[in-house]
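User: My collaborator sent over this chain with a note saying "see what the structure looks like." That's all I know about it. Can you take a look?
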Amino acid sequence: MHCLGSTVRTALLLGAAVGLAFPQSAPPGIPIDDQLTIRKCGGCHQRDSKGMMRRLSYMRTSPEVWEQAIKRMIRLNGLAITPDETRAVLRYLSSNNGLAPEEMKPGFWEVEHRTIGYQDDYTPSPVLQKTCNACHNIGRVLAQRRTRDDYEKLVSMHIGLFPGSANTFRPQPAKPGSAVTAPATPRATPVAGIAMEYPRVPAAPASNKYPVDLALDYLAKHQPLITPEWTAWRAAMRPAKLAGTWLLSGYQPGLGKLYGTVTVAPGAGEDQFVTTTAFTYVDSGKSVKSTGKGIVYTGYNWRGRVGSSTAPVITSTVVPTEWREAMMLSRDGNTMEGRWFWSGFGELGIDVKLTRAGSEPLVTGTDINAIKAGAKATVKLYGANFPATLKPADIDMGRGVTVTKVSAVTPALVTVEIEAAANSPVGLRDVAIGRSTAPESYAVYDKVAYIEVSPEANVSRLGGVKYPKEYAQFEAIAWAAGLDGKMQTEDDVYLGAVPARWGMEEFVSTPDDDDTKYVGSLDDKGFFTPSVEGMNPKRKKQENNQPFNNFGDVWITAFYKTPEGAELKARSYLVVTIPNYTLYDQPEVTQ
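Assistant: Without extra context I'll predict from the sequence alone. Here is the result:
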């Protein structure tokens, strides 16, 4: 009986995965015409006379999700495919069945490995939180487009692989007899001689729908297979022409602004490139140089890998020897924006913008975050092609700010003396040289009104023995009140990170709280290093006096003394939890 039950479950899973047991009229799909993809996938995903392959023709998604699907076929279905073949199939599917830039953007933070503040902020409907988001990062859901039928197959596949999801999708009634249980429905197509059946699930109440049905309704309407965005992008898609020098401007929490260059040269194929990267941190003056490789999927999706694979000791000042890159190329091909994150430590990284360098002057930013009205300052302007004859009148620092002297000029750096008038309006300023403008490069303010700790909530994970630690970087961000003179309103002006005195305070949530002693340590730059995982014999709770884990929750506090002499305080909530025992990642998409 056990063997028979296993056979039935296998048949159900295979039927859900390849569509054998779901006879229907074929919906509009995307033809698959790549011979390698047909050869490797066609054994299970049958292809009809119109080029439609079951499942493959009825979904579009990101390179990361396509790669995860290929890995699943290898693990569960014994797909035999070499690494080079995998990369070729991945490139084809990502272009032929990919996403338009407008479709990718709402969930791009997921491939950038951003972890803070995105689940709730970017969830378009609460019905997805009750179903998909119960297990998945919501960014993974946003980066998929399918037919209604294929979404239903996806639900069946989840139930086959993870039976517990059935109760999430269609919860059992609270009281026996309050809902009718749907009988098992025989399937017409036998698999391995076994009559296939749907799993038994409770019927939906007549006046309502189950969470999964609401989710299916939403996805079928708002994330269908064929969209105007995809139709337009597929017609306009072309190989990216990226060779040349790009100016890099970036920001790394804890280390501040950085500027440099990325030189891009052709690689092995028209969508592959080799890179040489050099940049310098403004505050510390530390420079980084490295080489790497990149690939562009779907005409705009840059994925790159830079440096060697040696694992650094992680601290607040470490510069990684290896990082991975996720960026989106603009429609005109002249800018790329995204995030570079440390390999193995996705919570740490740099927000970056690359701008193609031409022959005209190009300004990318300043070394300062803000200047007080009525004050003077020496400012560095970063960019390219600055003429040696540059004069103060050639540089526009924004309303109320005057360039009094050009102290030094190189093709990539201009040093100027500026003065902000005492009556300068509070707000962000653009910097312009010639026809080039760096928007919102710095701010003019009257006084620091308050500070916030960024992020306002964070997660760190224990580790260091069998599993990697997950770190947390905090910053004290200063703000000026805007035109309304009130704090914490929409017109407040961002003044950037300020040096702070850091500390931890107990977040009292359980009896005998002692989390600040055991969860980890915080350095003078707001960088939190968690403790090791496992039971700590030095930590015992009063309820059983047995060794206890190092997890807990604390307040991260920052104190800042303003130029006016006021001391400001802010805090952030930090949860220090267990290691991430299972990592779902796709490093191969960058190779």
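A starting point for your reply to your collaborator: Residues 244-356 form a domain with the Lipocalin fold (CATH 2.40.128.120).
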